[in-house]
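Field: sequence (string)
Field: structure_tokens (string)

Example rows 1 and 2, in order.
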Amino acid sequence: MLAGGGARGAYEAGVLAELLPWLEARDERPDVLVGTSVGALTATYLASMAHRPAAEAAGGLVELWEQVTQDRVIRPILRHQSPRTVLRYLAEVVGIPNVRLTSLLDPEPLRGTVDSWLDWRAVHDNVAAGTVGALAIVATSADTERAVVFVEGREQQQVADATLVDYVAGPLTVDHVLASAAIPVAFPAVHVERADRRGGWYYDGGTRLNTPVKPALDLGVDRVVVVTTHAPFRPECQEGEAHRAPDFAEGAFELVQASLVDPLIQDLRNLGKINLLTERLGVSAAAPYRTVPYLFAGPRVTGRLGRVVSQVFTRHFAGTRRILRSAT
């Protein structure tokens, strides 16, 4: 299970570069891959490389992340996006027909970047050969406001619908990945043609199901590896911060915690409780529940990765001249 996290997908790639070869050495390489947002991109890439050694697959992912720059994700902000955003906003305010502001940023370069990363023929071949048991991508329907899990594999069997989660079986495409990563407000919704001919508009899967624990279990896995960019543990207490009023960034961080991290904590706790219950009652008495061992891979404490990001930003982008150069 690969969680969302935007640019923190680079951290996710680093984790996998260590984790996947270790698992492969234990003959435990995952064959069901479930991802949300940037995790959907990572999961699809791993599905395309499933026929390769784990070290080669994960190493290739790290190399791709090392090549990522802002212009491979969004169009220049000041030179291209800001004027169009302002004009579209004003046009919508005054009521000009057929002019709408769909997002603050233009992620058109992202489509080309994702296309260059992913070998869809290899994805479909690996699923058909059984090297990949299933590839699942999580998005959020703009029409129903429910999490939708698009699944290729497991002989295209239909997974039973569940509370707040819908499953759609069928071949996956680049549109599914882009929809899963379409951050609301920042990016426009992505139209996806579904195998059941009920196409629609979709946003980032992280708005409803950032760490897709339930879809992985519904796909019948017997063990779970959770890779996430957010820590489900207490934050480190920094000296001198105990009595300081939180700033804007820390307030925004609380919103992220509530929407992305808190559901992860609850899902892991529920999974742990069910495992304990099943072990105490026995398999037959605990049915339909079952024991599913899990391994968590992510930051040890809340805020640690954020501080690394802040250090990188300060080193490469801080200062008026660097910010303007980046934005243009």
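Row 2 begins here:
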Amino acid sequence: MNTEREYSLLKNALANRVIYSITKFTTLDYPNHLACILWFAKCNMACPYCYNPDIVRGDGVLSIGEILDFLQKRVGMLDGVVLSGGECTLCPDVEYICEKIKNLGFKIKIDTNGSNPKTLETLIEKDLIDYVALDYKAPNYKFQNITKRKDFDKFSQTLDLLIAKAVPFEARTTVHSKLLDENDINAIIEDLHKRGYGGVYYLQNYLHVGDTLGKTVEQDNKLNVTKLSQLIPIELRNF
């Protein structure tokens, strides 16, 4: 590839508007790190309880060039960058973005629904990510009902990949008692146990804080956590 063509491709990539917004500072989203969050526009799933309908349906507002300018000014102030969304692995420039972020000295955490195992594998093999939060949306028999996608096989590949590569990661599930019950969560726990997942399984209780993607109503009852299996460690969030 000639230099002129390389420059043209680089210029076009920098101009791509793939980020919906930036959370400039967080102490909660990257364990033990001060970080910012880049919210990538678009998602290939349509979970009814999703808190980010504007991000899922909306278009990118900030260009790659703009976010890199922002991050340059945060060198020495932040430890890491969280790539969230939406679904960040849908972005065709995600590898390039990760390379640039790592070159600035930041650690990278990715929030993902696990639907793009090949992209994730590339990022892992190139040592471009440091931590992954994997959303285990539902057991296989309810996966399509929750996500509106037939992507459990791809999710399964991602989960096995993360376990095999020994990448620091967490598995987590958002729980709305009208969508997932104790039997469903126990099915997930058993699956994680059988695959050899060695981390903590995080259960995030759905909180009704506004419009969601599926106009989800408030729960009548919370999950009965006393009925959950003890095969793996569990941490409850917002219960």
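free_text_note (row 2): Residues 5-9 have pLDDT under 50 and may be disordered.
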